[in-house]
Amino acid sequence: MDMNALRDGWLRAIAAASDDKALAEVEARLFGGKGEVLELVRSVTALPKEERPAFGKAANGVKQEVEQALTAARDRFVAATTAKELQATDFDPTEPGPRLPRGTLHPITIVQNELVDLFTSLGFQWQDGPEVESEYFNFDALNIPGDHPARESQDTFWLTDKNLLRTHTSPVQVRTLQRATKNGFQPPLKVIVPGRCFRSETVDKSHEHTFYQMEGLVVDRVHGDQGVSTANLIHTMKTCLRVILERDLQVRLRPGFFPFVEPGFELDVNCPFCSGKGCSVCKQSGWIEVLPCGMVHPNVLRQGGLDPEEYTGFAFGMGLQRVVMLRYGIDDIRQFMGGNTRFLQQFPEVSR
Ligand code: PHE
Question: How far apart are CA 306 and CA 95, in angstroms?
């Protein structure tokens, strides 16, 4: 039996198949139950031992060649069918598809993204911390021991295992300092911590049980008698608020008490709604409180593993909702978690 003659016959049969149905028949004849190609390969067993390797090799070569011819023929039919179908349609397949509604970013996300962009451009790093926090990091490490009245000001969701839902992002200050000192502290350390916080508040126009903060922390080594200063803090806050509130503004500091900063401040901006002239939003004072901040307390630095004689720093805790409300003129904090799409769709993503 001439293997080449067989092969030529098979290739001719494949070439002669005029459509995919005919091709399927040829394929069944060659590779089906008693397929001719398979029979050829199997017939090697009938040969004397010494002829088998050469024959087997040749037969397998033929088999491969026929398989390739089949695949090529099948591909040709598929391409032809597709081309025919496309010609028969009366639509333009190169037109873009229907524009499905894309959804929009949440206004808090928009402002958070902008803040993260801004602070990372100033050399800050983004840090995360757990929402389920320990009493130690949420309070004790921040200079708020168990009997301290400041605990009262943060109505806390306690969990049954003595952990809690963090009441602010400040615990990440100490977490970050400890991690940094463990790895050989490299000053300056500049971090921001955007995140979700929880307090057992009665919800009203200006209180939510779930809210977003962005903590900031800067710590550097004291050079001579020059440490991180309140001037550094004010400048950073001014830069940040100017970008976020999209206008030039004035800030002022009032004393504010937080056990983990000393001195501690409430930072106000001149009211964006009346430019400081006095209106109902600023209660005729011309100023709006935007964020608490201060110089990092020595005890917090100690908890972080640093010597407060050697290092100083500032920290701030921005309430993101508050900034978003100022920026867009929103007067009810419940809108953010309300899931009302008519509210949420008003903040198209700014293309940048
Ligand atoms: N963590 C404080 C709060 O939520 C805010 C704050 C942060 C104050 C950093 C000072 C410095 O009330």
Answer: 63
Q: In the structure encoding, which two tokens stand for residue 279, read together?
A: 């209106």
Sheet with 125-126, strands from edge to edge, namely 125-126, 189-198, 210-221, 311-319, 287-296, 261-270, 251-255
Report d(CA 326, CA 281) in Å as an integer: 10
**pLDDT band per the 50, 70, 90 thresholds, residue 272:** confident
Backbone angles phi, psi at 185, to 5 degrees: -55, 125
Ligand 1 contacts CB of residue 261 (under 6 A): yes
> Is-contact 132 254, C-beta < 8 A?
no
Contacts of 129 (CB under 8 A, 6+ apart): 137, 166, 169, 171, 172, 175, 193, 195
Query: What is the gyration radius of the CA atoms in the chain, in angstroms?
Result: 36
> How many other CB atoms are there within 10 angstroms of residue 196's CB atom?
14
Q: Which amino acid is at 163?
A: N
pTM: 0.72
- Could you tell me the distance, in angstroms and rounded to a whole number, from the CA of residue 303 to the centre of ligand 1? 17
Please tell me if the CB atom of residue 293 comes closer than 6 angstroms to any atom of ligand 1: yes
Instruction: Please tell me if the CB atom of residue 322 comes closer than 6 angstroms to any atom of ligand 1.
Output: no
What type of residue sits at position 120? T
**C-alpha 242 – ligand 1 centre gap (Å):** 21
Ligand 1 binding pocket includes 198 (Cβ within 6 Å): no
Best mutation site among 164, 258, 320 for ligand 1, i.e. most ligand atoms within 8 A of its Cβ? 258
pLDDT tens digits for range 60-111: 999 999 999 999 999 999 998 888 888 887 878 788 888 887 788 999 999 9
Tell me how far apart the 2 most distant CA atoms of the chain are, in Å.
109
**Is the torsion defined by CA of 269, 271, 275, 276 positive or negative?**
negative
Nearest CA to ligand 1 atom 2: 317
Q: How many other β-carbons are positioned within 10 Å of the β-carbon of residue 317?
A: 22
